[in-house]
Amino acid sequence: MAQDRIVLHYLKDSRASRIVFLFEELGLEYEIKAYEWTPELVAPPELKLVWPLGLSPAVQIFKADDPEPIVLAESGQIVQFILNNYDSEGKFKPESMRDQVLVDYYLHFAEGTLEPHIVSLLVGYVASQRAPFGFGWLVKLVLSQINSQFYLRKLKTALAFLNSQLEAKDGGYFVGNKLSGADFILDFPINENLFLNPYKVKRLGIDIDPSKDYPRLVEWNKLITERPLHVKALEKKASVMKNKRGLLG
Amino acid sequence: MAQDRIVLHYLKDSRASRIVFLFEELGLEYEIKAYEWTPELVAPPELKLVWPLGLSPAVQIFKADDPEPIVLAESGQIVQFILNNYDSEGKFKPESMRDQVLVDYYLHFAEGTLEPHIVSLLVGYVASQRAPFGFGWLVKLVLSQINSQFYLRKLKTALAFLNSQLEAKDGGYFVGNKLSGADFILDFPINENLFLNPYKVKRLGIDIDPSKDYPRLVEWNKLITERPLHVKALEKKASVMKNKRGLLG
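Output (structure tokens, whole complex):
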């Protein structure tokens, strides 16, 4: 049986990052089509040809007997579909119904509850950078109030929750004793958005000290990022994204 | 076989609204435990006893032979689990793999891509209301720039996308020719957040004219809200929430 042809549409610095990790761990054959941000800091219009919203990640799956690809265009949906259809040995399959419930929870939590706060902090940062000359301080002042009362407070609550979930199971992966959809989906917000580049995080006004505030989450992050296929995914991304324009320059 | 005992934890004016519609359409027996917002406009701490993040909706499922409930705490995960486990006649089951892929897409899209923009517009509105005396205009000025460049623009893009998806299939429900998880998950942001109360929407700075801008979405909204069990769900919510404090007073 011919393997399905799988194409990952990858905008630099986007949530698509986690999908490379997923594909590498599954040993899938896949292609990456790389995109860069426009100078106006929006996704390029070509992405709309893949899926009308024009966001990344988007995955096209071409089956041998069907000219029309299946298109997946939300991270949680991608991870869920790929694991359901391409983890033929059940390597990452949860071991009980309760574990599956928990994986499904994280698949929705990462984009529905955690990531929006990080995005809003980024949007506020970009807005203060783009404010008319002399007004950046004013935008920062207004936003720092909203951030401390809402986005930053919510983000810290979500991180403390994740840390306590790991604490309760004495560390390791998020669900059971092995890698699962939960780890794939959380890789982007925790590793790439928050822990990988403390300087960038500080610029966004996120005043966290991961080793002190979320030690279990830091252990988890180490566990994930030291996996050989995570390292390979990072190298692959770097080589494909070379010379592409990212979101924060 | 005894039916599982199902408890919906429902904070007024929250995303839990859609779950009542889901339960009514499935003819499930369930209990509602109602909560009100605190005077500080946050969810009450009792919700943390159900699930540590303390958000709503949360659903507990008590099986006859197990003292420990299964807890579901993200809207998309709840709709998915409930449909997988309690739609025994397959009334709302998609008719093809491609339709299932699309339902799963919307289950992630509603909270991951659509709802965060509405929440940010609400957060901005609340911030401008709470600004120190005389400074509300300044907060509004700063936020109106960010809204028009980001949140409002993104929201309108998402609504136009939904409208075009319905247009492409010549109206009706979002997937196939029947109600599915897609309609259950989209009920809250489209109906309750945006179309039900045009005055509230204007207050948030959302300058849309649904019948003109998104006519297919308005038709869909009518189709959904005129279903007898949607009407029943609304009456049930009103009676349970009577005298409870809501988010916008």
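Chain A has nine helices and four strands.
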